[in-house]
Amino acid sequence: MPKRNAPDAGRRNFLKGATLAGAAVLAPPVAASTQASDPSKGSTKAAVPGPRLAAAETMPPSKDPVSQTTSGGDFMVDVFKTLDIDYLAMNCASSFRGLHEAVLNHGGNTKPEILTCPHEEIAVHMAQGYAKIEGKPMAMICHGVVGLQHATMAMYNAWCDRVPVIVMGGNIIEANKRGPGAEWVHSAIDPGAIARDFVKWDDQPTSLQHFAESAVRAYKVATTPPMAPVMLSLDAELQENPIADAETLKIPKLSKVIPPQGDSAALAELAKMLVVAENPVIIVDRVARTPAGMARLVELAETLQCAVIDNVGRMNFPSRHPLNQSFRRAILRQADVIVAMEVNELWGSLNAFSDRIVRSSKPNYKQGAKIVTLGSRDLYMKSNYQDFGRYQEVDLTIGGDAEASLPILIEQIKRLIDDGKKSAFAARGQKLAAAKLAAVEQAKSDATIGWDASPITTARLCAEVYGQIKDEDWSLVGTAIRLTWPHRLWKFDKPYQWNGVSGGAGVGYNLPASLGAALANKRHGRLTLAFGGDGDFLFAPSTLWTAAHHRIPMLYIVHNNRAYHQEYMYLQAMAARHGRGITNTATGITITDPNVDYATIARGFGVHGEGPIIDPKDLGPALKRAIAVVKTGQPAVIDVVTDPR
Amino acid sequence: MKLFTMRSAYVAVLVAGAFAARGPGPTALAQNAASGDAANGKRVYLADGCFMCHGRAGQGGAMNYPAPAIAKLEMPVESFVSFLRDAPNDMPAYSTDVLSDKEAADIHAFLQSLPGRKPAKEFPLLNQ
After folding, report:
1. DSSP β-bridge partners for residue A141
2. What is the complex's ipTM, to 2 decimals?
3. Would an 8 Å CB–CB cutoff place A450 in contact with chain B?
């Protein structure tokens, strides 16, 4: 909304001097804030008051005032501006009406710009997807109690995925200020309690200065590895009421924490282990937290000419790099040194688990192999939710951010490599490269099976999509469960070409998180695309309205196997175990009768929709049409009826 | 559990190896395996949910771990039936209570009837 419509705009921008200079988060807003309290500085002077304002400030205060010239929400918006928060995703609610109005009429709906989301889970997941592409957090705000309850599953996904999200919720702290009815059922003594197990830090500020300090602290905590969501509960009175102590308020300076490097002596020891190893293997999951991460990992792998197994939690390693052995995990059995970097659940990567009547497991790696971890995982965790996985014995645990530690590790390794080692490493690399080539050829051969089948094989689907996007500046930001074909067939070699997965395996992530990533890609002009399961789609289909409303270009391909397919297989296993009814497991699992028409749903939300596509020959033309739509800045959905996996 | 990981692709190798390596089981088949009914095998393959993990074209897939491609299965029928009775890892074991030897042999015939792989070079979309 134009600022000219905001009454007393000059007056209400009393802190703007503190915020413009501080738009970059590392700028010193404290100095600017000091300036704001100095009446000799031009930007903090009140504008010449108009008649209404003059009357308001010269007349005796009314017992029941009907207008005000400042609001706590204005100050909160100024804080967001110093933190360079681009977006505030929300589903509107009365418990944050004060802040909502301030974002529009004080902040001009920019930094942050409001993203209207039909569900709080959409708002949080958008923020999760956005942060992984853009490298900085987005904010979301939700209604007191019930809105936060909607948001929590997505917060848990972000927590498990180690992604910073600034979550805020409205509340009315003082009982005597609550109106009857909704304001009581939507207020709580401790709103953050429901989410405290899966946020890194939370607070409920009781003054504006408290808010400023907690907001800056929240940003700092969220973006310090291991990253995670944070939460602020915002009292409605604090948002809505006039600022009582404007001259004393200041916005603290944000100084980001430099990600900790691993201990240099420990990294030197690791370097020695890697250089003398015959078959070292590096396993990575969430290593690349900036665009530099992939390049550093490539340098490490090429220096050692060793195998890399990528668990694809981030865009860690180029998919077609000769040393990428992600689909040859049997090489762990030959490894004498295994280095796991930012791997959340290492036990799961190093052991095979058998989901039988008697559950059992066995190691994937050979006895005597040295196992080293490097990452921030061990530096912070909580106990209730079990996302840390089973305890894995290791020989050396190096606490520190892996990406930050890689330059030192590489330098230490290079110091230890002589000509003899170089030659041996080169020979090792050649063998791995040959094996990689064979694995790619195997993938291509596998992809030919059922090429013309209907329902369409997922291999054919992915090959058709790649054929349409390979010459674009593409970014794949979502995938259906266990859809591995893109990583087997496509060439991923840019830091933004992959965006990881949900973290907490909470279904309903993929569509909104992909949209958040698409929002981040939009400013870079990239072609965003995502695959998503039909079951996932149905959790938050109204995400498409947000896509259309905010003109966020994204090609979303529904991998429609007409079932919650993973559960289909589990139920089949249960029936087989009991020796009964193996033909009877569709009930409660399949999404048929009626089949869902996802293209029609998309069109209902104002999004280009095509499908259901059942003949693989129709895929290419449909993709062409959809990509043309996306290139105009609009979202598009294609519903493809596929074989299960 | 609804996990997307690629951490255990190696299991596909193990399972595929088991398919290839197992010898004839102790149970003699009542029917002549070579006369398995591929049409009925297809019906059973779909009705009994084999396609869930292995795909309708036998192209393979995944449950907790990758499930191997089984189109044009080379395993002898006796070994195949024996394998189904005591499948390894996460693959369900199918007893005679839910899958007769005849039905298993029919599935085997169906898998052998599938076209299976083709040379990847014939597919421009796989060479880009």
Report:
1. A90, A168
2. 0.85
3. yes
